[in-house]
Description:
This protein is of the alpha+beta class. The protein has helices at residues 10-24, 62-77, 105-112, 120-143, 157-172, 181-196, 234-241, 250-264, 272-300, 304-323, 331-342, 344-347, 402-411, 414-434, 452-467, and strands at residues 28-33, 42-48, 53-58, 85-88, 94-98, 201-204, 213-216, 219-222, 229-232, 355-362, 378-381, 439-446, 471-476, 481-484. It is globular, with a radius of gyration of 24 Å.
Amino acid sequence: MCYLYMHSGKDIIGKISEFYKSSQKSDIIKIEKLEQAGSERIYFRVYDIDKSTAIVVYNPNAKENETFIYYTKTFLKLKLNVPEIYAVSKDKLMYILQDLGDIDLLELLEKNRNGKTIPENILKLYKESISQLVKFQITGHKNIDYSKAFSIAEFNTDAILFDLNYFKYYFLNRSKIKYDEQKLHDDFIKFAGDIDKIENKYFMFRDFQARNIMIFNNQAYFIDYQGGRKGAMHYDIASLLYQAKAQIPTEIKDVLIDFYISEVQKLINIDKKIFKTQFYDFAFLRVLQTLGAYGNRGLIERKAYFIQSIPYAIKGLKYLVEKHNVADKYPELKAVCKKIIGSEKFTKVQDDIFTIRINSFSYKKNIPEDATNHGGGFVFDCRGIHNPGRYPEYQNKTGQDTEVIEFFRKNTKIDDFIKDVYKIVEYNIKDYLERDFKSLMINFGCTGGQHRSVYCAEEIAKKIKQNYPVKIILNHIERGICREM
């Protein structure tokens, strides 16, 4: 019997099931829809009867799919770390990829950083990612036919102006910041022309950020390069180091840009001093483009993750404008940036932000008390879910471990349980936000507080954080682990 994780697109589920069975010659146990990002692409994890998993991607844009598949095959031949392609549907609207898991570099960084310090193992993964980036850019460039690029083959003046206008229309205008339109347009033309004159054009990944770097078998793997094109190599390293939510400390950025340059110099000749000067111009461009994206996805579409990221992007903008004088040649653009930096609309820290405390606990002990004196909150009993703790191989593991997660997804309907819980708590979250309440507590209990409750608390925290601008304090009581999200 085949259990399917259903969603609104039932026809898509049916097509995916048929495509997977016919191409992989295997029956399906479950299809699980993954969280959707900002694009039309929909990702599904398929569990088949052989206890293996794969990712099926559905995208109605066949041309974009063709580009992704072409790039992937090229990179695989070059032995770069990208997912293998197992099959492509005849209409090219679906394809099956190697499952690289759920852990990306940004998530690892956020979970393991200690204040401003980045642990050595995370820094090592950044350096590994940078080494591979150089190979994507230089070795990839030699093997890519840019006529097969999706939409835009080269990052030139027109493409740069598109990014600058994206910033203007989706962030600047939505922020109601006043400016002289003609003067700003003239600055955009000059800035785009200055950027386009810079040499060293190779393969540009386009969205090279830690969220697109998956950590699989303790190695960095790369996804989301379908927007790749020919362009200046400065852009990708700027995208990585100035990713807003990563908040990489300045001194570590300096270490990593020097490391990047040393890796590039192994393959081509570049002048370190000139490259670093140009690098900050591209970091400026990338931050402006990012603010445009946050305006679109956050201010317009009201997606929480993007709204929460705006202050971090503005912090990067402030550093570039004030420390590296990147806007000095563009007076109206500089004036606009100063207004953004000085505005309290996005930069003011909200100490009284709505906080949701999510606990996992053991029913052998007491239900957690509400320290805010608001009388508690939700308590969900997870003991009706099949317990992996009954098996010796899982007893020393927890709901955060891959093996336990796979057990839940293959042997239980825990994700249905979480889906139902989310529907219940979401009603209160919406109501509390409208009424300007500041606190809510959600508790998950199981026998030992190690497996089922931990997994449920983690998953609910992720769902809420992706959809609402709230602070989450996640506390695994029996594990002695508490972190802020």
